[in-house]
Amino acid sequence: MLQLLPNYAGIQTIYLTLQEAARDYSYTHYLFKLTHRISGKEHFFVADVIADNPRYTAVNVYTDADNVNNVLLTETGYYEYAVYVQTSSSNLDPDEATALVEQGLLQVIGASITTTPSTSASDNFVYYGN
Fold first, then answer.
1. pTM, two decimal places
2. Which helix or strand (DSSP H or E) is residue 58 part of?
3. What are the Cα distances from residue 69, in Å, to 47, 54, 93, 119, 125?
4. CA 7: distance to chain centroid?
5. Which residues pair with 126 in a beta bridge?
6. How many beta carbons lie within 10 A of that of residue 23, not counting itself?
7. Would you tell me which of 13, 24, 43, 63 could form a disulfide with 34, CB atoms 3.0–4.6 Å apart?
8. pLDDT, tens digit, for every residue of 22-46?
9. What is the longest distance spanned by two Cα atoms in the chain?
10. Pairing verdict, β 12-16 and 57-61
11. Percent of the chain at pLDDT above 70?
12. Other CB atoms within 10 Å distance of the CB of residue 38
């Protein structure tokens, strides 16, 4: 499973195996679609690829801005990701991409999305033991 930090200005690198499915297509770029599993909100970006070979594809991801090559992720939780091949460096529409080459699950980790309730007992009680 892929993991990212939310709203992080630094470089985060994810590793995938995209060339296995993409070998039958002519392409120059990868389009990512991220869909939050609870809210359904969709995010798109064209990947900043730093390595692309038959063994793995390394992609730098920036989650602090919303533009063609970056994605603003503020919601933690699970996202479904889909990766498409395409020849455009600016297209953010999966319907205009060449082909879907990989799907999976991505987790955005950060602040806790669950809380543990705290309990307290009164100081004014009497305990009778046997």
1. 0.82
2. strand 57-61
3. 6, 23, 13, 46, 62
4. 12
5. none
6. 9
7. 43
8. 888 999 999 999 999 999 999 999 9
9. 82
10. antiparallel
11. 85
12. 10
What would the mean pLDDT of 70-93 be, rounded to a whole number?
96
Q: What are phi and psi of 115, to 5 degrees?
A: -125, 150
CA gap 102, 30 in Å, rounded: 10
Say if CB 5 and CB 84 are below 8 A apart. Answer: no
> Structure tokens of 84?
């498409």
pLDDT of residue 117 exceeding 70: no
Q: Which two tokens stand for residue 94?
A: 């999966």
| Residue 68 to residue 130: CA distance in whole angstroms | 72
Provide CB contacts within 8 A for 109, sequence distance 6+: 3, 4, 5, 6, 76
Look at residue 108 and give its three-state secondary structure.
strand
**Burial (CB count <10 Å: 0-12, 13-18, 19+), residue 6:** middle
Query: What single letter denotes the amino acid at residue 61?
Result: V
- State the alpha helices, DSSP H only, in 3-130: 19-22
Q: Please answer whether residues 72 and 29 qualify as being in contact, where contact means their C-beta atoms are separated by less than 8 angstroms.
A: no
Task: Give the alpha-carbon dihedral of 98, 66, 36, 118, to 10 degrees.
Answer: 160
